[in-house]
Amino acid sequence: MRLLSLRHVQAGMKLGRTVFTEDGKVLLGAGMQLNERLVSGLRRMGIDSVYIDDPRTEDIEVEDVIRPETRQDALETIHKTVQQLRNTNKLARRVSVKDMGMHFQQVFHKILTDLSGQKDVIIHLSNISSHSGAMYHHSVNVSVMATAVGMSLGYNTNQLRDLGIGAMLHDIGKIELPKELLDKKERWNKEEQEIAKTHTRLGFDILRKQHDISLLSAHVAFQHHERLDGSGYPQQLQGNKIHEYAQIVGICDLYDSLTTPRPWRKRFMPHDALEFILGSGGFLFSHHLVDAFRRHIAVFPLGSGVVLNTGESGVVCRVDPECCHRPTVRIMQDGRGNDIHDPYEVDLKYELKLFVEQFENEELFEFQQVKEISPEY
Known about the structure:
By secondary structure, the protein is of the alpha+beta class. It folds into three domains: 2-57, Molybdopterin biosynthesis moea protein, domain 2; 68-296, Hypothetical protein af1432; 305-359, no CATH class. It contains 13 helices and eleven strands. A hairpin with a 5-residue loop joins strand 2 and strand 3. The longest helix has 19 residues, at 68-86. The relative contact order is 0.12. The mean pLDDT is 90.
């Protein structure tokens, strides 16, 4: 399968991966044949790309690092919790919600089991969702990435649980922000950003009252926008005053935000977002945490169309965990744009004169300089 901009999707093509609704239900299932009505519906929902089954790439399996049923369960749990909290008054939100901690522990156990069963956890961020469900999918993505980082750092099960649950709930304070602010399709102005920044304190106040959710998980919500140099919020903490869990979630939160499209901008290229984070080591985030994060990210995700410096184009078909920035590419068009009858593969790890120059579907990406926008979501 291959990732294709919705602008290039044609009627008759078959969906390669499932598209989920905001609450984890299946919107369009893998294998469904697309028509103009379905493509128009996806476009209206703010979806910019989908994975398509292609005979020339049918052997390329773009699998999530967690099972589809695990992701669906996590999305449903977050959605139900958010709805439950929204349907209570603000005073009631500050007391414990029945079984909330137990539900998140059960979901996290499934995430940890899925990740533990893999030798190398390389995250391609291959799930497709609408803008309306961005908060829920973002929360699951951040939890998966943070847990992978924690595992590589040698965290024990209890540490991973506190980190992973804190990551899933890091944005829970946004339920108390004005609905019109969350629904706004334009970039927030300075005043609105200041209002949005209160979500860290609001989330901490909610989580610290919950039974079976640790205070460390609550501090993840409180501190995930703090930065080593004191430029973060809400307390402008510096250095080791920021808990390591919150730093990990801050890195994952930033990466997922930058590589996810917003109503007011396209997604940033994965390698641009990663380069920004790598450059922030030592003054926004600790070097060793940035390095641990880097080892789990596919800079050029499986199934993505890329163009080499020779002008040839193709699809990323393999990613070596030890050399994520130099994938194997299946060449499908020559330098003049002509289709190749018998596609062949080039392993950039060995062909050192070749490199990926750009993504094939450039319209998916933002090309302005990457800079952190806090908070974006």
